[in-house]
């Protein structure tokens, strides 16, 4: 497998904490604090155990699948990191939290990976709606992790391969970026369980005529995607 133009950035510590039930005794409080530390240290291994059961996933079913605000905050932490060069991720941003690629990226399967080679062209517009909210809470802000996310969002938009293939490529991409097996399994489980809504919504948008490939790139940071996509000749279909 290869990702092209991958640039690693310093990781930003994850501030997410687990919602463990409070105890009435001091001893239990200490045990709970230790449990929280273990969850953070093991990158969500507790969530993997929970995801093996249908019950926790049912309890979370009322939550929206994706989290645009969390995705935007995660990406902005990279774009504005101390010492980071603007555009190091080869991404631009519309004011309404929609991103686009300034430069083509590629993924190709390794010897033991069953998946198609994927090329995401420069100008692809992504709202990262195919990425489950747990992705942004379990992974630190690291530029490398955006690559499997964008590849997955592209496959969910174009739908040139079945949804299961797109999800499998996403898992391979996380493995290639050295995401721990526990965290990768948690995110992959969330995609398999909840990703159908994003897949269906993309199909409806495509049928309605929405185009996601920029022909012209905005030069004003105040421009919104909702405004830009109304411009004649701004975009093409993919």
Secondary structure: elements and pairs:
Blueprint: E1 2-3, H1 26-41, H2 45-51, H3 54-59, H4 68-79, E2 91-93, E3 99-101, E4 105-108, E5 118-120, E6 125-126, H5 133-138, H6 146-158, H7 163-176, H8 181-194, H9 196-207, E7 213-214, H10 225-228, E8 235-236
Helix pairs in contact: 2-8, 6-7, 7-8
Index terms:
238 residues; mainly alpha; three-stranded antiparallel beta sheet; 9% strand
Helicity range: 40-55%
Unreliable residue stretches: 4-59, 81-88
Number of helices: 10
Tell me what portion of residues adopts beta-strand conformation: 5-15%
Please tally the β strands and state the result.
8
Order of helices and strands: EHHHHEEEEEHHHHHEHE
What is the terminal-to-terminal distance?
24 Å
**What is the 3D form?**
globular
How do the strands line up in the largest sheet? Answer: 1-4-5
* Whole-angstrom Rg: 19 Å
Main sheet specs: 3 strands, antiparallel
Look at the structure and give the mean pLDDT: 75
Structural class: mainly alpha
Can you describe this structure?
The protein has helices at residues 26-41, 45-51, 54-59, 68-79, 133-138, 146-158, 163-176, 181-194, 196-207, 225-228; strands at 2-3, 91-93, 99-101, 105-108, 118-120, 125-126, 213-214, 235-236. It has 238 residues and is mainly alpha-helical. The chain has a three-stranded antiparallel sheet, with helices on one face. A three-stranded antiparallel sheet has the order 2-3-6, with helices on one face. Strands 7-8 form a two-stranded antiparallel sheet. Helix 2 (45-51) runs parallel beside helix 8 and helix 7 packs antiparallel against helix 8.
């Amino acid at each position: 497998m290869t990702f092209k133009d991958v640039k690693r950035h310093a990781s930003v510590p994850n501030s997410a904490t687990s919602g463990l039930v409070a105890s009435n005794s001091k001893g239990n409080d200490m045990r709970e604090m230790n449990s929280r530390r273990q969850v953070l240290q093991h990158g969500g291994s507790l969530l993997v155990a929970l995801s093996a059961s249908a019950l926790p996933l049912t309890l979370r079913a009322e939550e929206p699948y994706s989290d645009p605000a969390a995705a935007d905050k995660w990406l902005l932490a990279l774009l504005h990191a101390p010492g980071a060069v603007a555009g190091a991720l080869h991404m631009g941003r519309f004011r309404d939290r929609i991103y686009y690629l300034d430069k083509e990226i590629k993924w190709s399967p390794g010897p033991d990976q069953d998946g198609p080679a994927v090329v995401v062209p420069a100008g692809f517009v992504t709202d990262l709606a195919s990425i489950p909210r747990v992705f942004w809470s379990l992974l630190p802000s690291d530029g490398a992790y955006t690559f499997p996310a964008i590849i997955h969002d592209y496959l969910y938009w174009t739908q040139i391969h079945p949804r299961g293939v797109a999800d499998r490529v996403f898992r391979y991409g996380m493995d290639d970026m050295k995401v721990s097996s526990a965290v990768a399994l948690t995110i992959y489980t969330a995609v398999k369980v909840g990703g159908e809504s994003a897949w269906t919504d993309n199909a409806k948008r495509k049928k309605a005529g929405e185009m996601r490939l920029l022909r012209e790139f905005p030069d004003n940071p105040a421009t919104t995607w909702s405004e830009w996509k109304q411009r004649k000749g701004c975009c093409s279909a993919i």
